[in-house]
Amino acid sequence: MNTLVLIDSVELGLIYAIMALGVFISFRTLNMPDLTVDGSFVLGAAVSAVMCSNGNPQAALGMAFIAGCAAGSVTAILHTKLKIQPLLAGILVMLGLWSINLRVMGSKANIPLINKATVFNLLDGTTIEAYATMVIPATIIIIIMLLLFYFLKTELGLVIRATGDNEQMVRAMGVNTDTTILVGLAIANGMVALSGALIAQYQSFADISMGTGMVIIGLASVIIGEVIFGVKSLLRRLIAVILGAVLYRLVIAMAFELGMPPTDLKLVSAVIVTIALAMPVIKERLMTWRKRKTNHQGEVRKSAEN
Amino acid sequence: MLKIERITKIFAPGSINEKTAIDDLSLTMNDGDFLTVIGGNGAGKSTLLNCIAGVFEVDAGHIYLDQKNITFSPEYKRSKYIGRVFQNPLSGTAFDMTIEENLAIAYAKAKTRGLKPGIKKAEAKMFKDKLAQLGLGLEDRMYQKVGLLSGGQRQALTLLMATIVKPRLLLLDEHTAALDPATARQVLHLTRQLIKVNELTAIMVTHNMKNALEYGNRTIMMHEGRIILDFAGEERAKVTVEKLIEQFSHQSGEILDNDRLLLS
After folding, report:
1. Which domains does chain B have, with CATH numbers?
2. Domain boundaries, chain A
């Protein structure tokens, strides 16, 4: 793999890592399969592209985050107040967002940002100008990770984490789980939208279909991170998710290098996640199989001795 | 301090599975009472606790805690005044979080939770001291996940979590039923000690008649959603398990054939 591709993949990985941390909050912390992600990612990109076109690339990131929070809140309300299953609530919001995203983009399926200022122009004129596309995502992801780490250890953060473990206990501790789910899903989707906003500015366009399969990419990053870098402490888990997102990009880049057609990308993503999800079962089967084999050998030996 | 006025709870009303779990039940408790509740399967013991805790809304009647009508207040609001320990040792704690984090969640019970750090230094020290008082060595495992603890250790921790902020009422729903006899005894002793030290008002549901008479200062027996026996004071001191069984047959017109009640 040449260096340029390598650097590109790391840069993309660092930006997608924000989305992966969002998926980590909903899938792992809240233990909720939230499919809003596919829609909120595009929502972030759409808001970002429109505001960049109007010359507000920094404010665009903040607005994208807020818009994502709103999308996540709607999913949370559908689930907690209207008792719709989380999976279905997410799909409903994702579906609705498709129309909303088109409205945000002014009924255009694609907004190009050629020659528009983005946050990646912030370092123009400084000595590290050439490294802006690496320095800016790296700075943002480190800040976000530290903020998230602090937040998950606050009074509110603790009960959000406990909600994913045991809702009954959280209610018995005087906390409204409707609220913890709302805050959790809002922040998760806010981060997903922020990631979409940065991607739009990074690749200089926003597209209505850029979010398809995003939740699976996020989940793949989370699982790759967990498998390779461990789940021991909270900080380690967060770092693992970020590294997982980067690693996922590198794997995909490698597959492209080996001649995989870009159209096969989604299939490869689906297969990676399937294998990762099946890991525990495969491990168990393997153990049983080994046990049986050694037991059998023992019996054969015993009968031979007799 | 707790006043239950003629409450009724019907599950699946109008359906073929309709069941009156609580039937026109009234109960008044005074400050410092430690009430034990016995009864067969389906007598309504757990339902009664769940109605008090707000897990179920009652279909009729009223519940007052400290003269405040809490009949329609949601579960999480009541939980600020009510401590609970469940039968299932998995129910009372967050398994993927550390002992210290679980205690911090419990300690913040009365507060509005914001963006302040969840665990403060001074509190961590206090948690450690309280854990040491349990005598289970948990004070050296503060940073371990609760998922690693045994059932008995979890129930002890849940008890501590339910009482670390003094509740107005402590509800114990067969909290030793899932434990082995030796551990159950240990947890029961701990329960009595915590109730005594903190001068708590408590209701303990149990399937063990001996325990029901041994612990607390008042015992009620439930049958088909009603209270059929109610002992306190001297009268209770004279009651034996045999007398209880005899009384049950007399009151309910049925022979007590519940193995779980008789064998324990």
Report:
1. 2-97+164-263 (3.40.50.300)
2. 3-260, 263-306
- Cα–Cα nearest to A205, from A53, A65, A77: A53
- The shortest C-alpha distance from A158 to chain B (Å) reads 7
* DSSP conformation class of A210: T
Q: Which residues of A touch B46 (CB under 8 A)?
A: none
Chain B environment of A175 (Cβ under 8 Å): 76, 79, 113
Distance CA(B139)–CA(B106), nearest Å, equals 16
Asked whether the beta carbons of residue A161 and residue B96 sit closer than 8 angstroms, the reply is: yes
Asked if B160 and B103 touch (Cβ cutoff 8 Å), the reply is yes
Residue pLDDT, tens place only, A234-247: 999 999 999 999 99
SS3 A265: helix
Residues B17-74: tens digit of each pLDDT: 999 999 999 999 999 999 999 988 889 999 999 999 999 999 999 999 999 999 999 9
ipTM: 0.92
Q: Provide CATH code, domain A3-260.
A: 1.10.3470
Cα(B108)–Cα(B165) distance, integer angstroms = 8
